[in-house]
Amino acid sequence: MSNLARKRPTIHDVAEAAGVSRGTVSRVLNGKSNVSLSAETAVRRAVAETGYVVNRAARSLVTSRTGSIVMVLSEPQERLFEDPNFSVLMRVATNQLADLDMSLVLMIAGDDGGRERVARYLRGGHADGALLVSTHAGDPLLEEIERAGVPAVACGAVLGRESVIPYAAADDRGGARAMTEYLVQQGRKKIGMITGPLDTPGGSLRLEGFTSVLGRKAGKQMIVHGDYTQAGGEAAMERLLATVPDLDAVFVASDLMAAGALQALHAAGRRVPEDVAVGGFDDSAIASATRPALTTVRQPLAQVAEETVRLLIALLDEREADPVVLPTDLVVRGSA
């Protein structure tokens, strides 16, 4: 008889091979704790020997699990394709979930319509949990997620919800402090900053790191706000030069914005790093592609994604999920 014609093994076959009841097999496959170690070992050996494959659709009727996780990106759709950080988070999370026989669904929640679609999807019970990416403080979607009763974990803390929503993040404050200290050590006297949106941790915490080093020297005129886009970084750099024409260094809160800042500096006839040193944050693919290559803060995005998935699985298994903050590294290249 060919492999194609051979009957697929059933839960009855597993029970017979393991010498236990079908109920015991079911409890092992569904992760129940009221099974002896010897019975669990026998069942798992029998599963391997028989080649039994769990029918996820059937099991979901019992466990209420869908085997699906939704990644919610709270930014306009174009940011997904412009910012390389998002592709790293998606790739790592997808691979990690695949190892658990789970799928990742991406949804964009950058406007009211997107948020409503995500809320409707979650209320419909289509996902076991949510991975939140670039979530802004006060986002109304957060209340919808809570009402839907869907476990959620964030890539980066959700400001104001740090004790409610578990998260994995890079040390934004520490990384910004290290970059600012480096610029000071290079003899720079007038150091400005282009921040990210202040309702995100990368915006507010990196600004805190910057001001913790410079104190009063970090006056309002030395700080302009950006939006994590290249065009936003270019426009912010133009404003900063207009306000502080004798600026000799700038810390930019993302590599993408730093690439825009470099364009503005070149257009203004400023040499980098001779006239103005530029430091970024992320160490994304963009950092080595700029001219000059970008001195930046490396955040371990792949590890952040791994930890975020691990925390969400812990929540699904009703285990503790404590926040994780990972260290950053200063990467020195040609721009500073």
- Structure annotation, total helices: 13
Q: Which percent band covers the strand fraction?
A: 5-15%
Shape: elongated
Strand order of the largest sheet: 2-1-3-4-5-11
Number of domains: 3
Overall radius of gyration: 25 Å
CATH superfamily label of the largest domain:
Response regulator
Question: Given this structure, which CATH class of the largest domain is correct?
Answer: Alpha Beta
Q: Please give the alpha-carbon distance between the first and last residues.
A: 70 Å
CATH architecture of the largest domain: 3-Layer(aba) Sandwich
Average the pLDDT over all residues and give the rounded result.
90
Structural class by SSE content: alpha/beta
Task: Say how many strands there are.
Answer: 12
CATH topology of the largest domain: Rossmann fold
Q: Which parts are unreliable, with pLDDT below 50 for 5 consecutive residues or more?
A: 1-6, 56-62
Helix and strand sequence: HHHHEHHEHEHEEHEHEHEHEEHEE
Query: Percent helix among the residues?
Result: 40-55%
The largest β sheet comes out as:
6 strands, parallel
